[in-house]
Amino acid sequence: MDKFIVLLLVGYVTANTQPGLRQNRLGTEVPSLGDTSPGSVWPQPQSQTSTSQTYPVLAEKFAFTYTSSSFRCSLLDEAFKRYQMLIMNAAARSKLHFRPRAPYTITTLDINLMAKCEDYPSLDMNEAYSLDVGESSTQLQAESVWGILRGLETFSQLLWQTETGEILANKTNIIDHPRYSHRGILLDTSRHYLPLSVIFDNLEAMAYNKINVFHWHIVDDQSFPYVSEIYPDLSRKGAYTSLSHIYTPDDVAAVIEFARLRGIRVVPEFDTPGHSQSWGKGQPGLLTPCYSGDKPTGSYGPINPIVDSTYTFIQTLFTELRNVFPDKYIHLGGDEVSFACWQSNPDINNYMKNLNITGKYNELEQIYVQKVLNISGQIGFSYIVWQEVVDNQVQLKDDTVVEVWINNHPDEELAKVTKLGYRALLAAPWYLDYISTGEDWMKYYLEEPSNFNGTDAQKKLLIGGEACLWGEYVDGSNVTPRLWPRASAVAERLWSSKDVNDVTKATPRLHQHRCRMVKRGISAQPLHPGYCVHDWGNI
After folding, report:
1. Which of these is catalytic: 29, 336, 412, 448?
2. 72 in the same domain as 190
3. Is 29 a catalytic residue?
4. Taking every annotated instance into account, which residue ranges of this chain make up the domain Glycoside hydrolase family 20 catalytic (predicted)?
5. What total of structural domains would you count in the chain?
6. Which one, of 138, 148, 169, lies nearest residue 40 by Cα?
7. What is the pLDDT of residues 263-295, one digit of tens each?
8. Range of the domain at 378
9. pLDDT < 70 positions in the chain
10. Using CA atoms, how far apart are residues 282 and 286, in angstroms rounded to an integer?
């Protein structure tokens, strides 16, 4: 038998093969590292049929081409350059140059985009695609540019290298679409500033995992790095340093554009009335003065809800944000509001007395949040809020999205939110700032979002979820390995079918995907003891 064919047959293991088990030092059985087929796809597609038939990919001549009926656009042209570079880099790393003798060699991926390109991704974008690696042609087809982007990532993952350096693809047919439309990552740039290069690296990793929302928790109590052109003192006085730890208008535009080219929405969060200490440094009169008896203490609490200047400021700032961030949605927060300072302030207590809501500080919060929601709606934003806004019975717009984050019966909260008719996101089980010894990705992988009591109509109101990495203990030095590949587990849960939930089968695939990310320059941490083969294997 031809030596080349023997090599391919030895290297190929079908996707259904049960991996062998070993034990880690905690006594947990985990699959051995190499027991999965080369060129496995993460997240797992909705439908994939592959055979042991392989075709060589002639990297030095490979090109992405449009079919005669395809629409074309610059966004796809940029994507072609990125993925062609991945293939060329893999070929360049090989010290051996094998000349294929196969009857069919892949030199092109034919792209059929069936509709005009959209400018920006949205909640309603269509990410479905079909991909066929066949005997005489290789074609990717989708009704939207976003589907083509997801298909390009899948195609890149199908490619694999032999020990001789040859790049191959198995005969494969894939029909794929995401299970949920909102698949997000929250990064916190207030508690620790994240350099632009780190944000770009993680946006790239999001694209490799088919994550489509960057939830940018850009400001908080600790710092205000967003540079407002209308209120420049917010960052001048509220950032850790106004010289370096800031995001200028050009920086923000660069993040939005980098994300757009990868089909990723950028949803900013400006959380009020709590989590706003840094705001007050650059906006006098915004925060509530705290009192001890009848004297101010010199400290400040949440945003002051009883003065007109607060709402003038919010309307002006949010109008600027509406012109900066192209996504329809803004995250307005509304969580963890401490009432202690409001309780101490005599002006607030007199205001509440006049409204006959004495002692009901949650009702005062309702008044504030309702006004901010109304302002946001008037200037053209739809909004996402944390679950406390619903718990406090604030009246919301019909297209409001409610994010469930408190990990205390989140299933009951999802049932309540969807029964009220609101769309929901699940974040509660996926707070990645909580770490533990061992392979904690498994518990994230096993969380099933739809396991709450509700009608079919309610289940459809759950539009996805987010993995959240808060910034107390991560900065540019460790945020990427802390996030990946743990967030990859959430990515597959939100993209793939509900029944794709076998940890034993997922482990070797995720190990392969982690090695793929490392090979592409993402500093993803290891799953367990083992190694990555960098000279051959993943593209």
Report:
1. 336
2. no
3. no
4. 180-497
5. 2
6. 169
7. 999 999 999 999 999 999 999 999 999 999 999
8. 182-495
9. 1-35, 93-103, 534-536
10. 9
